[in-house]
Design goal:
176 residues; mainly alpha; 3-stranded antiparallel beta sheet; Lysozyme-like_dom_sf; Conjugal transfer protein TrbN
C-alpha cells in the first residue's frame, strides 16, 4: 500500500487496518491509530488484568466485552487472530463510547481503556498526544477534513470562460 510505504513493515498492517476500521465505523482515524499505538498489542497476545479479564490481540480488546458479542459467535480467538478484525471491533467499540458516553471526546475515547477516573485521565493524556502525532502524519499524506470545524462546504468555481459559454436560461429554465 503506497500510503504506508514510509512505515516499518511491522506497522503497515496496524495503520492500514486502523484506517479502514475508522472509516467503516465513522470514528476519527487519528484516535483509532492512537489507541492502537497506546495498546501496543499484536496478534495472539493475551494479557491478564487484575480483575481476571484479559486484553486480547492487536487492539488489546477486553474479554469483558465479548459477553455482549457472543450472540454473534465472536470469540476471543477471533479477536486474537492476525488481520483487521480486531481493529474493526475496536473501532465499533470506540464508536459506542464516543456516541453514548459522557464527557469530552477524549474522555469518551479513553473509556476504551477504563471508565475509572484516574486510569481514564492517565490514558486520556497519552491518547491526546499520540492522536495529535497521528493527525499530523495523516495530514501530510491524505486530504483530511477537521470535522470539529464548522465551515460551509466549498462550492465549485466556474471560470469566466465557462460562464460566457454557458447557455443563458429564460424564466422557465430553458436554454435560449
Amino acid at each position: 500500500m503506497p500510503f504506508v510505504a514510509d512505515l516499518p513493515p511491522q506497522l503497515q498492517e496496524r495503520v492500514s487496518c486502523a484506517i479502514s476500521a475508522a472509516v467503516k465505523y465513522g470514528v476519527p482515524v487519528n484516535i483509532v491509530l492512537a489507541v492502537a499505538e497506546k495498546e501496543g498489542g499484536r496478534p495472539g497476545l493475551w494479557v491478564r488484568n487484575a480483575n481476571g479479564t484479559h486484553d486480547v490481540g492487536s487492539m488489546q480488546f477486553n474479554t469483558a466485552y465479548l459477553a455482549d458479542l457472543s450472540r454473534y459467535a465472536i470469540t476471543a480467538n477471533d479477536v486474537a487472530a492476525a488481520g483487521c478484525y480486531a481493529f474493526d471491533l475496536a473501532a465499533w467499540r470506540l464508536r459506542g463510547h464516543i456516541r453514548d458516553d459522557r464527557g469530552d471526546l477524549w474522555t469518551r475515547a479513553a473509556n476504551y481503556h477504563s471508565r475509572t477516573p484516574q486510569h481514564n485521565a492517565r490514558y486520556r493524556a497519552d491518547l491526546m498526544r499520540k492522536a495529535a502525532k497521528w493527525a499530523d502524519w495523516l495530514e501530510a499524506r491524505f486530504v483530511t477534513r477537521d470535522v470539529t470545524q464548522t465551515r460551509p462546504a466549498p462550492q465549485p468555481r466556474q471560470t469566466e470562460e465557462a460562464r460566457s459559454t454557458a447557455p443563458s436560461m429564460d424564466d422557465q429554465g430553458k436554454a435560449r
